[in-house]
Amino acid sequence: MKLWKIAMGTVGRIAAPTAALILGLLCAPFVAAPIGNFGVISPAMAEPLTKSQFDALDAYNNSRRHFEQVLGQRRAQIDSKQGLPNLPGQALYLARNNMMSAYKDLTDALPSRIGGPNKYGIPPAYFSVANELLLDQYRQLFDQMQAPPADAQNSETPFKDVVDLGTAIARAKGLDAASAEAAGRISLGLFFAETNGNQNIGNARSNKYKGSLQTGVPEDQNGRRKWAAIRKSIAAFDPALIARDDREEARAGNIDRRYNHWTAVRDGLMNAHADIFPQVPAIVKTLPDPIDQMKLFELIQIIPSPTRSAMASRDLTGYRISDPKIMFYLRNNSMFTFGQADRAKTSATFREILDAMWLFNEKFERALSRFDEIKKPSKG
CA-to-CA distance for 138 and 78, rounded, in angstroms? Predict the structure, then answer.
C-alpha cells in the first residue's frame, strides 16, 4: 500500500548544488499546486520549515498521489469492465484514510495550513477543501461497486419504511408516542450510517454484510425470528403495517431477505436494536442531541457488547473503553484513525467516541432532514 515514490531524495545522497536548492526550499511555506493537482502542496518562499514539518508535507503529498492512483485504477477497471479484486473497496478506503491521516499530521505540524470548511463537514484539520473532488470520486466508485444485485426489491418509500418500522417496533416494546417517534428517527439514522441512504446495496469492503441495514445471514435470520414473535402485538395497533409486511414477504419469495428493503430493515432492527428501544427515553435524556442518539445506536452495530455495558452503567458518556481489540474496531470504522495523535490513543470515554464519529455527522444530518420531511404532512 505504501510503495510510493519519494518526491525528493535524502539531501546527503545528492549533488551539492541540488542539495543547496532543496535546503532553500526547506525554508519556505506552501503554495497551492499547479492547476490539475490542487490538493498537492509544494514548498515556496518565506516561512521556514523544520525537517519534521517537511517530512509531514512530503508524506501528505505522497499519500494524496497514492489515493489518486487507486481511484484511477478502480475507475479504469470499472469502465473497461475488468474483473475487480476481492473487496475492491478496501484499498480505496485505506488510501483515503492514509491521505486524511497524513493531512492531520501535516496540520498538527503546521496549524497555519488548516483551511476552510468543506461540503462533507469533515473538520478542516483532517481534510483540505481542495480534495473534495477526490472524495466525490471515491463515493461515486463505492456507489458503483456496491450496486444492488439484479433481483433486489426496492421500495418506493425507503425512508418512510424505516421510520414506520422503527416506530412500530418501539411501540410494541412499550414506548409512548414521543419516544417511539424518537426510535423511528434513530432507525433512519442507522439506515444512512450503514448505506448512506441507499437501499439493498452490497458491500465493497465485506463479503459478509449486505442489504439496507448491512447485516450478515445469521443476524438477518435472528431478526426474522424476533419479528415473528412480535408481529401479533404490532397487528393490534397497526394492522396496515402488518398487511404491508405480508405483501413484502410474498413478494420476496425465495430471495435473500436482505435484498428486499422492507424485510432487510425489519430484520436488522429486530436483531440488534429492538431490545434497546425501551431505553430510548433514558438515552434521550442523557443525550439530548438527536445526532448523538443516532451515534450511540450505530455503536451497537460496531461494538455491541461495550456499548451495552456503557448503557447499563451509571455514567454512559464517562464509561471508558481500553481494550485494544475494541479500539481496533473503532479505528476500522474511522474513529481515532487519522493522524499519529489520534492513533496513539489507547483508551477513550464514550463521550470521546461520540465526538470522534464526525464522519457520520453529514449522514445523520441528512437523515434528520428526511425525517422532518416525512413528519411534515402529519403535523400539517
Answer: 13
Q: Which pLDDT does position 244 carry in this prediction?
A: 98
Q: For residue 349, give the H/E element and its range.
A: strand 348-349
DSSP letter for each residue of 12-79: GGS-HHHHHHHHHHHTS-EEEPPTT-TT-EEE-SSS---HHHHHHHHHHHHHHHHHHHHHHHHHHHHH
HEC profile of 351-369: HHHHHHCHHHHHHHHHHHH
C-alpha cell at 151: 433481483
The whole model's pTM is what? 0.86
| Per-residue model confidence as pLDDT tens digits over 93-124 | 999 999 999 999 999 999 999 999 999 999 99
Buried b (16+ CB within 10 A) or exposed e, 327-344: bebbbebbbbbbbeebee
Q: What is the pLDDT of residues 202-227, one digit of tens each?
A: 999 999 999 999 999 999 999 999 99
> Could you tell me which of 136, 163, 144 has the C-alpha nearest to residue 201?
144
What secondary structure does DSSP assign to 314-341, as a single string?
Answer: S-TTT-EE--HHHHHHHHHTTSS-SSHH
Q: How far apart are CA 380 and CA 375, in angstroms?
A: 9
